[in-house]
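Researcher: I'm comparing several assemblies side by side, and this is the next one on my list. It has 639 residues spread over two chains. Same procedure as the others: predict the full complex and return the structure.
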Amino acid sequence: MRPASLVKVLPAALVVAVLAYLPYLPIELPGILPGRVNGPGSLQLLATCLVIAGVALSYDVLFGRTGLLSFGHALFVAAGSYLLTISLADWSLPLPVAIVVSLATTTLLALVVGGIALRVGGIAFAMVTLAFAQAASIIVMRNPGGVTGGEEGKSLNRSAAPDLLVGVAHAPYRYWLALGFVVVSFVAVTLLVRSRAGHAMAAIRENEARAAVLGFDTYRVKLLAIVVGAFLGGLGGVVHALVLGGSSPHVTTTEFTLALLIMVVLGGAGSTWGALLGGFLYTYADARLVELSGAGFADALPDVAQQVLAEPLFVLGLFFIVIVYFAPAGLTGLGGRLVRRGRAT
Amino acid sequence: MTDFVLIMVTGVGLGALYFLAASGLSIIYGLMGVLNFAHGAFMMAGSYAGWLTMGALPGSWSVATRLLVAVVVALAVGAVIGLLVEVVLIRPLYRHHIQQVLVTVGLSLASVAAAQGIWGADPRPVEKPEWMGGTTLVLGARLPNDRFLFILVAVAVFLGLLALLHYTRLGLIIRAGVENRTMVEALGINVHRTFTVVFALGGAAAALAGLLYSQYAGTVSPAQGGSLLIYAFIVVVIGGMGSLVGTAVAAVAVGLVQQLANFYAASGVGDLSVVLLLALVLLLRPSSLKGAHA
């Protein structure tokens, strides 16, 4: 490896090293994390944040990299998650086979759904993907034959999962699994973006008509983006099910896809770090804002205002609108702008 | 036969609700190209405005009178909210369609969360006039009375909007704008003012839909608007974005398909068949999405 590329890899490697070390850190961060950093509660929270960050990155392959506004990404995450839990519990497959089955089926699903939805473009594409995801969500909620568990969700078959991933004491292993998923997604997306196909995706995002005139087969490139995004999303669903010990119907809903969209825009669309940061912060804020808002500074406000501020989605929604107006490139874009301004003066 | 009549009327009744929810969405999309995700929030605002009004009015008034006042209040609230959203949030992002979608997504998220914080996530019961809860015997079928009311209101709104579009100057501008907005601007007409009016109209229609839907469900809850919004989207897409007649036809078709499938297949198949209908329409007539004449 050339020294120049080593320097580029260094910050990412450093972040991964620090994150991987967290389960050995027995300190308390009052307010920020529940209990000790290496306690099971904190690690479970961080693991969830990491998985969702990786899923947000998979959505960014469509939205930020290729310019496809899809409202159906939840379909693929849910497919990975539910296929894993169902194949472990109902079909009694061993874990590796179950993972392969989940990912293969999710990829196939992406080929079919993407192939159909890409017949139309723009807002219509968004609507078609929304409809497919909604259909899947309805099926999961109706619980056909008791397979999906309906609104309760479907819990992981604990006897089929390896011992290292089950139980409170093994929280660090689940955390490392989530971190591993993020690293895999990061590497995959980085390689994709640098490849020929990645450049074609960027060309389509900037000006699809021009890319088509230049000789790119835009339909195939867009389908590739959907399939890669769905594969990584499905992998995220598998890891999500393993980390959280089951599939929740929440990952099938349109709200989940909208949340992914918000995460990506919040962090910075079309930026690997941005999507990861957005996904991590959104999930963290969603889980922790309730405790943070109860920290005392809101006591002076009337009751109604306190109740509203205690809704994490209210705060996140407003923050999101502000970002769309004043920092269209997201948090990472904002950071980059500030750094450049600092250098200029 | 009895079942068939019942399904027909309930299906058209449901379609009437879908039409009310989709009409504003369709005109807004056709004229401005804005996919308004906040439409669900408008509906929620209407249902809560109606619920609060009915609770605040003296209990000595009959339920029907209070409902009538609630409808007026909901219409006003919906129109004001639509107007504010257009002027404050949508206008600065003119010609940035993706950003407009994002802003309305953020708005719908925040407003549903706010309603949850103030009134709680659980459904609250709504008072219903006695007549609306009853049934009428037609051709041997016991038909719920509220469906007739929904159909009546939807037909009135449909005719009203058609008259507005075809017999007023504003309607002329809207129709011309849907057809070719740049040309209308070039002719020296202020389309922006029309945008505001259209958003206010859409907000009022949405609020009415939300209020009637809460009557249909018997409860108000923050999640109601969102679930109705998905069907409204489907109706708008099937009907051809921007076409009012298409929206009306699609709304009735979706309502009927849903009820028929729910009855003759199994409960829950109706929702799926609606989605299938959408996929079919898109595959057979992708051109219907490009927007038709208003």
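Model: For your comparison table: The domain at 40-344 of chain A is CATH 1.10.3470 (ABC transporter involved in vitamin B12 uptake, BtuC).
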